[in-house]
Here is the input.
Amino acid sequence: MYQIVLAFHNFVRWVALILGIIAFVRALFGWLGKREWVDLDRRLGIFFTSAMDLQFLLGLILYIFLSPYSRDMFRSFPTNLGNPTDLFFGLFHPLIMILAVIFAHVGRATSRKATENLARHQRSVLWYGLSVALMLFAIPWSRPLLRSF
Here is the structure.
């Protein structure tokens, strides 16, 4: 079960990352080009935050129920903080990714509440950009880029 959920978590990370980059770039061009905020901009924010929510749910299932790294972390805390793998997957990865999810939602909410096109694009650039940056920082790049079931 662990391998299946981990493979799905890995696949969804690419969906979330690609949607985040697209939403960020589109907002950046909208801001710099002084474009209208259109329905596609709104929907990209919805798709990005939805993918982040699914990714968070999968990560939570892994962290609480399935992952041997979090199990090791809980079992021998704090002595295993010297192990870089346990430290990354047991502490840093979840905390940074929770912030990435929060930033994605803040971007969606603040852009939705703004009344001017420029403000919507600016807020999206800021918060989606921060979310994507955190994702890029916390992705375990040393792991396989695509896992199989």
About this structure: The chain has one domain: 2-138. The chain has a mean pLDDT of 91.
